[in-house]
Amino acid sequence: MYTEASKGPFCQSCGMPLRRASDFGMGADGLRINDFCHFCFDRGSFTDPDMTQQAMIDRCVGFMTRQTFTPEFEARRVMRRVIPTLKRWSSDSVGSTCGVLPDAPKDAKE
Ligand SMILES: [Zn+2]
Fold first, then answer.
1. What is the pLDDT of residue 8?
2. CA of residue 14 to ligand 1 center, whole Å
3. Is residue 4 part of a domain?
4. CA 38 to ligand 1 centroid distance, Å
5. What distance in angstroms lies between residue 60's CA and the mean position of ligand 1's atoms?
6. 65: in domain
7. Which long-range contacts (CB under 8 A, 24 or more apart) does 82-91 make?
8. Number of structural domains, the chain?
9. How far is the CA of 106 from the centre of ligand 1 (A)?
10. Rounded distance between C-alpha atoms, residue 9 and residue 74, angstroms
11. Cα distance between residue 84 and residue 53, in whole Å
């Protein structure tokens, strides 16, 4: 029987699994932010507030290919599916000032 624990929380900005207390971001009040990792969110704000969804995908693809030796096209396919579903990038974003793109045509270039 599987439990919810096997899914684990993920950073709602970059998709990183949040396993340890030190993985989580921190609010302005010093309390843990359950939705974001410390790379994305620190002391009450996004570390890179101008980050776009596309830039985040690129960053995560680079990270994934280095960390897991996944071929780039495969990593990109996964990230394109995962990143837009995360809270930071979905239309009902937690923060209204973090540069959420409206429905951009994804396949304009391909
Ligand atoms: Zn993150």
1. 73
2. 4
3. no
4. 7
5. 10
6. yes
7. 82/15, 83/14, 83/15, 83/53, 83/56, 83/57, 84/53, 86/10, 86/11, 86/12, 86/13, 86/14, 86/15, 87/12, 87/13, 87/35, 88/12, 88/13, 88/36, 88/40, 88/46, 89/13, 89/53, 89/56
8. 1
9. 22
10. 23
11. 7
Cα(24) to ligand 1 centroid in Å equals 8
Token couple for 21:
């207390």
Name the residue range of residue 35's domain: 10-85
- Judge if pTM exceeds 0.85: no
Higher pLDDT residue, 35 or 8?
35
**Residue 105: inside a domain, yes or no?**
no
Quote the ligand 1 centre to 15 CA distance (angstroms): 6
Residue 15 inside a domain? The answer is: yes
Q: What separation in Å is there between the alpha carbon of 71 and the centre of ligand 1?
A: 21
Cα of 72 to ligand 1 centre, how many Å?
Answer: 20
Residue 86 — very low, low, confident or very high, per pLDDT cuts 50/70/90?
very high
